[in-house]
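Reading a protein record of the kind used here takes only a little practice. An example makes this concrete, so a full record is given next.
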Amino acid sequence: MSEYKSKPVPKPLLKLKEKLEQFRKNRSGKKHLPDALWKKAAKLANEISIDLVSKHLRLNYYDLKKWIVKIENIHGGTTDFLELNNVTGSHSELSTLEFENKLGEKLRVGISPGDQGTFIKLIENFMSRSR
């Protein structure tokens, strides 16, 4: 049995599911889901889990993830600050860092002590892709 079926479903998710089912039942043709419902779903997914919300509401996981990013950008949910402590060691030693942007893309970088400037430019570019 999958995990989302074994746990009790939060009441706000059940309420939103009811609204979505009502919308789907009453819509004519291929009318798109209203932004207000997407925003509510994205807010819930941010609080609960994208997987749980997308499955219960029968929404596309990746579309829901994009709405979460939109909402976070509107409400200032991003961070533009990254602190790196000095990388020490010999030039042959690599420190490995892994980053994930808001789109879920991952970047793993090996950095040696003399590469901080290049590294910072690379990370700035990568993280800006999620905006």
Q: What stands out?
A: The longest helix spans residues 11-26. The chain has a mean pLDDT of 77. Residues 3-74 form one domain. The chain has two domains: 3-74, 79-131.
